[in-house]
Amino acid sequence: MSLPPPDLDAAVAHLRGGGLVAFPTETVYGLGARARDPLAVRQIFAMKGRPADHPLIVHLAEASWLSRWARLDGPLGSLAGPLAAAHWPGPLTLILPRADGVPDEVTGGLDTVGLRVPGHPLARALIAAVGEGVAAPSANRFGCVSPTTAAHVRAELGPTLWVLDGGACTVGVESTILDLSGEVPALLRPGGVSLAALEAVAGPVQRGGRTRAPGTLASHYAPRTALILTDDVDGERARHEARGLRVATLAAGEPQEHARRLYAELRRLDLTGVDVLVAERAAPGGLGDAINDRLTRAAHEHPPSTLNPTSDRG
Predict the structure, then answer these.
(1) Which residue range forms the structural domain that includes residue 14?
(2) Domain harbouring 189, CATH code
(3) How many CB atoms sit inside 10 A of residue 183's CB?
(4) By the 8 A CB rule, do 27 and 173 touch?
(5) Strands 247-250 vs 162-164: parallel, antiparallel or unpaired
(6) What is the DSSP letter of 239?
(7) CA 148 from chain center: how many Å?
(8) Which of 51, 117, 206, 214 could, after both became Cys, cross-link 89 (CB 3.0–4.6 A)?
(9) Triad 6, 8, 10: Cα angle to 5°
(10) Taking 50 as the threshold, does the pLDDT of residue 45 lie above it?
């Protein structure tokens, strides 16, 4: 069931009644449930095939809701306000010690919770009308390519899911995740807010950390077709074509446009029937780091030595 923006009230009622609603954010489409409704949240895991210990992000309507969900008395709690002021609404998720009453279903059993205020006006309108946080991973099967249009959601999760159609996502890759639950700020996932922008507010930021967070498994964001990430697209293509493989390529480009089209292009190329996708590595820095992170994880399961022509497969 596709719901245009005028049917926002129906989507709100469906969420309040324990149902799931897919909705647009500036990053990707999310599969949402009321975050304080454990039964509704469990439906997210069932629909996606997501491991129960993989935490979700709680989407808030405004930064003033932060203290309802997180404790700010830790060593880095004082950074949450300035970071929210600088980057919310927007593609930044903050990991903080969770407040009392946050369900284990949302946090994957961790003592931390991921929070953000999305930049899409329809998402904020939905959450504000619901009146509480909405837990939402990407609206796709676990580990697969994220959706950046309502059509992507319907194609993957079926016609019975309620989908608020807010057009194509403008950022196109998932949010930056910054962990404020430890002793030093830690970048767990690059995204739409750059490391430099974080450090301008938070000071030095460590790359990587041990806190479990969405989208940080070695293999993720993967098309069905094998994908190879390279600096030498022409050479890689020629090598695989010489082995009898059918190859499609994904060129890098201006970072904002490349990120915006990345998942739509992966989905389109996945339908062409080729044996391998060869993706060009983006220039490092900013969104380029986020693009390369997603493509590296997408390529994890298919090292070049495992690829064979379609005719050789069982």
Answers:
(1) 2-207
(2) 3.90.870.10
(3) 9
(4) yes
(5) unpaired
(6) H
(7) 10
(8) 117
(9) 110
(10) yes
The side-by-side arrangement of strands in the sheet containing 21-23 is 2-3, 162-164, 21-23, 30-34, 134-135, 57-59, 112-116, 92-97, 176-179, 186-189, 206-207
Task: Report yes or no on 217 lying in a domain.
Answer: no
Q: What angle, 0 to 180 degrees and rounded to 10, lies between the N-to-C axes of helices 77-87 and 195-202?
A: 130
**Span 214-221, average pLDDT:** 77
Amino acid at 293: D
Do residues 16 and 146 both lie within one domain? yes
Q: Which amino acid is at 206?
A: Q
User: Considering all CA atoms of the chain, what is the largest pairwise distance in Å, rounded to the nearest integer?
Assistant: 60
The pLDDT-based confidence of 65 (bands split at 50, 70, 90) is: very high
Find the CATH number of the domain harbouring 303: 3.40.50.11030
Domain count, the chain: 2
Q: Are residues 200 and 254 in the same domain?
A: no
Q: Is residue 279 part of a domain?
A: yes
Q: Do 18 and 105 fall within a single domain?
A: yes
pTM assigned to the model: 0.93
